[in-house]
Amino acid sequence: MDRPKVALTMGDVAGVGPELIARAWSRPELHALCSPLVVGDVAVLRRAIEETVGDGERPRVQPITTPEEADPSPSLIPCLQPPGAEDVVEVKPCSVDARAGRGSYVYLVHAIDLALEGRVDAITTLPLNKESLSLAGVPHPGHTEILAERCGTPDHAMMLYLPSHEGHGVGVVHVTLHMALRDVFDAITIESVAAKIRLADRSMRPLTDDGSRPRIAVASLNPHAGEHGLFGDEEITTIGPAVEITRSEGLAVSGPFPNDTLFRDALSGKFDAVVAMYHDQGHIALKTVGFWNGVNVTLGLPIVRTSVAHGTAFDIAWKGTADPSSLFEALRVAARMVAWNRRHPQG
Description:
The protein is an alpha/beta fold. The protein is 39% helix and 17% strand.
């Protein structure tokens, strides 16, 4: 089957995004996974190649105006530069800058529209900087919220996925995401937890070994899962009922479980997915185990979107040392999801 056409968004030009694209491009495994093109700034990409790639491995950048023009190879990077962010060439590496924030937004929106139009099969995003995004006047804290608005998808979630080449990967789906911890308790409802359990069930099927119904564990909110109400009753009044409702619908779901043991069990193969209550609850566990191999997947969208699981890394950006492992995993997951969608067009 044809390799999927994947649009790589450059992300924040001051961070590791341009460097990761430049350093990964000439490797044959990238082109074995997909037919890639870049959505970003041509001049920035050329500078990243010159400054972070060895002389004998430098691919050439070819400006294109449509994805249909793209003819990628290990020695040629097709780069589509949307209008509206020409000033990113003036951004200093490793700096918070509104121009970089605007650029990352422009690249992302253009790639989303290409995917919605069916002109690319998936998008894989490089990291943006939330402070730069805010300085640019973008009213969203990150990729997930921009994607949901642009796609018109209110029922969405972010999943952090840790692949395993031995056959067992683990996904963590978050009920709440970019919000203050003091607001999390109000956002945890029976409906919001049940919705994310259903999303985990649908979205993990392409990533299980045989497409079977995934085994889902639901995290608790309070220490020791509340100790029967001693440390909080959300497990009794909210999370537990959501588990029962979705189990009655036929989903392979259980919990809520105490978090100090849950992720050990999931990573050892007992579960395929975990529904976490808030951002750090899921991210800390998986990033501790596989920081450079993790993949972000946005669930509930009409398009396939994956991303590296790390940030702009201003501390190491533009030094030629950034590890592209997460980018390769993100492309691998995108290709796997596209293949599943082609085999199961009705979901």
